[in-house]
């Protein structure tokens, strides 16, 4: 059954239907917008938020805040991660129809204070009319401003301003259609009468239906050869997909259990060896928050692109690192090798967000340690071994402290 959207301009006027294909064709512009919102499982939400921001490379982040609750714990974490990754943020305050005026003023004051704090350095702009909406949207390339909307989904107040704003946002994607094809898998499906389907975002290049591809790596670091049966975008079959587009590929002779989130799809070129995968890599990191010190053998969940896997620190360019420190660190994946490239952004956490960084080099040579004293294989203090009595060093960095 085809999904459709029923629209009516007035209660007495007859509704008309827009099918999914019509919506896809008639959309004026498209931007990748990530919208974090609160759910029952905070840990699951935070994990999905990390993965979503890094794997989808969104152009913007839209943070929804309930007017009667304000910006609370998990929402502050979402905002802090988006700001740390330099993703432009817009805020939508919802439920203004049921919120008492004094509570709404408190929420507005709280959001203004957090956005103007030293950790955010944003200028909140409260959108109240169409002219201000258009001017702010055209100037949103500047990362200093943060538009704030006050809406109600019950009365429809100011929803037209949000729609107008999203439709005229400038696009600032950094995708190269001339580069070699690379596709990151964000999800996998088994569709009846179709077979295995993978979805994700084309990072670079162009791919056509019928092309031969490599998909991997598996647990041993190997790639499988297959063929793209068909391509879909927004529920429409298309002949090709290019850099920056979200697409789904139907694969030939591949079982769903053989593919997973975090794999990549690369072109199959005659006479070219399989792509190299790595279990170790070097990155420059910034520690956002940690109660004690971090040394070698410290483990945390690391997100880099669509990859989410436990990593251990095997070398660091100083004896230990603390909150606010920048360091060059060598990581090792604990389960399987992954396909990485210099320049990929990463984020690691243990419960709350601990740090972020960028991949500087793939592979690691123990004969050329980062530390002048060589890698330390001794027990790691602080987190993990819990040095009793050691005081917290530095101030925990998070938005709205």
From TrEMBL:
SUPFAM superfamilies: EF-Tu/eEF-1alpha/eIF2-gamma C-terminal domain (SSF50465), P-loop containing nucleoside triphosphate hydrolases (SSF52540), Translation proteins (SSF50447). GO terms for molecular function: GTP binding; GTPase activity; translation elongation factor activity. Residues 58-170 form the Tr-type G domain. Pfam families: GTP_EFTU, GTP_EFTU_D2. The keyword Mitochondrion does not apply. Keywords: GTP-binding, Nucleotide-binding. InterPro entries: EF-Tu_GTPase (IPR050055), EFTu-like_2 (IPR004161), P-loop_NTPase (IPR027417), T_Tr_GTP-bd_dom (IPR000795), Transl_B-barrel_sf (IPR009000), Transl_elong_EF1A/Init_IF2_C (IPR009001). Residues 195-265 form the Translation elongation factor EFTu-like domain. It comes from the Eukaryota. Belongs to the TRAFAC class translation factor GTPase superfamily. Classic translation factor GTPase family. EF-Tu/EF-1A subfamily. This is Tr-type G domain-containing protein.
